[in-house]
Amino acid sequence: MNGFVFAAAVMCVLVLWLVLRPLLSRRDAAAAPQAGQLNLAVLRDQLRELEADREQGSIDVEAYTAARRELEQRVAEDVHIAPRAAAVPGTTTTGAATAASTPPPRWQAAVLTLALVAGAGALYATLGTPQALTAPGAAPAAAGGQALDPHTSTEAESMVAKLAERMAREPNDPNGWALLARSYSAMGRFVAASGAYSRLVALIPDDAQILSDYADVLAMTQNQKLRGEPERLLARALAADPKNVKALILSGDAAFERSDLASAAVHWQAALVNAPPGSEFAQMARDNLAHIGAPMEGAAAVQPPAAAPSSAVSGRVELDPALRAQVADTDTVFIVAKAADGPRFPLAVLRKQVRDLPLQFTLDDTMGMMPGVKLSQFPQLVITARISKTGNAIAAPGDLESPPHPAKPGDTQIQLRIRPK
User: 231-259 pLDDT, tens per residue?
Assistant: First the structure.
């Protein structure tokens, strides 16, 4: 920031000097003609006195001629013209010189200075990146071992606000509603996300993944309860795609809420069969089945967890025991991957609760916020874990977080520990 400000200040001074120098020079140059006008007035008086002396016979012709020649020479020097042209200093020539050299008022220079500085600032605020003056760069921060949590930046909020404005003008764009809904969800704004999903489902009514995501968001607005509309959405999702893993997991959760353990086991077993080996959903289904003591039937039950895909990162998050008394089981845990040198918004986000700690996590290309921008596209990443009491994706005072961990796609041994600062 300091280097940029210094360079900008030097450029401003240089431009102001180039622009104002001629203006101020005109004023300085005008001082000489004004002083010359006073000298010319004196010389005219002396010439009149010389004429009077000649008419009275006080001086002879030779003395008159010599004195007049001397006066003409002094007049020529004062008006900076040839002696022959200045022999008779008339009022017309003098008046023209005075008018041409009249300097502009000083306030014009001051107004021009303020206009240039204000104009430059306005242009930079409109076309530049003012946030860069206060936000540290991603690459230097990562190199120094301290990376800014992507949620602390207002850049993501600004982008989402602009997207919301666009969707108000283009309400029939399903891609825009999908992006807006996922963005609101990642930011923890579940009521707004549910509204976006409602518009999306109206445009695409039979997409199992969209219906499952909508049910998940609605449950978050109901104190994480799936009863009611979320469960009906999950039924629609499974009707559209009986193998949709998220719909199966959430349907099992809904059955568990009703104390229907048999139905819950069926859904989780189906989810385990259809989930990619080693994925988060596979681990979730396995943990849920183990929790209720249900058998892990199917091919996935005997498969050991596979390594994370080369495009993903995985590891473990744990909480320092010294902080356990400061958090509640329902506090939200965000596990975030961002580019060490690239866009500031999250490339992948996983949302959990403190009760899940310690936990194994996997972040991959399916967990991004922006279509077409994937975790696997960036060679250097920064992974962080943060506990939020408000459940808001935007960092707030009192949040607890782990030191940022540098990583690259394919890393599987990432260790994040949320510890005292």
Answer: 999 999 998 898 999 999 999 999 998 88
